[in-house]
């Protein structure tokens, strides 16, 4: 079966095709190592466009092609982590990652990261990436729960998570300091996908 260590579901989510409101074809799939340059270009643009991510653009610039290739390979070699790209007409416009917690006692927890290029916001790409990730967790043998922290000012992301019934558990006051010196609270959110 295609999909190797990831099994049937991984093969399925590697082949999800949609259409955007502007008529462009959208594919949600796991990247190949040969997608590294496109993924890196997307990552660098994302960190320039938004300060809702943990990475600054300066930190992102430390990644080169070899590092991005190694990054993609690490997901291909690790069946408990997931990395997906959203491709609109062949261009990588968004990414999603789920990383299993490193401790045995938290092996049911996966940390979410998600981002879409600004030009493509509000087209349902975040929703489709998250849907694919939830389906992957539904089938995963150990992971039951997705968790993350989101900037309290990130209304669009919080709306996306509310749409999927993620629960807000509280805030970490001044959990993040932007490069301009301003402080932002972090909202702790999670969702148990299966029991
Ligand atoms: C958060 C992000 C991934 C969402 O991706 P997206 O493709 O725009 O998401 P969708 O189009 O699927 O959904 C966005 C939702 O936010 C809503 N929305 C848009 N602008 C909004 C605003 N100002 N306030 C509240 N909700 C808003 C949309 O209406 C939509 O909800 P709906 O489906 O109920 O109408 C994207 O905005 C992004 O990459 N932001 C920068 C990086 C980031 O913040 N990552 C998350 C870190 S935790």
UniProtKB/TrEMBL annotation:
InterPro entries named in the record: Acyl_CoA_acyltransferase, GNAT_dom
Pfam families, per the entry: Acetyltransf_1 (PF00583)
Keyword annotations of the record: Acyltransferase, Transferase
Superkingdom to which the source organism belongs: Bacteria
A GO term for molecular function: acyltransferase activity, transferring groups other than amino-acyl groups
N-acetyltransferase domain residues: 26-194
Name of the protein in its database record: Protein N-acetyltransferase, RimJ/RimL family
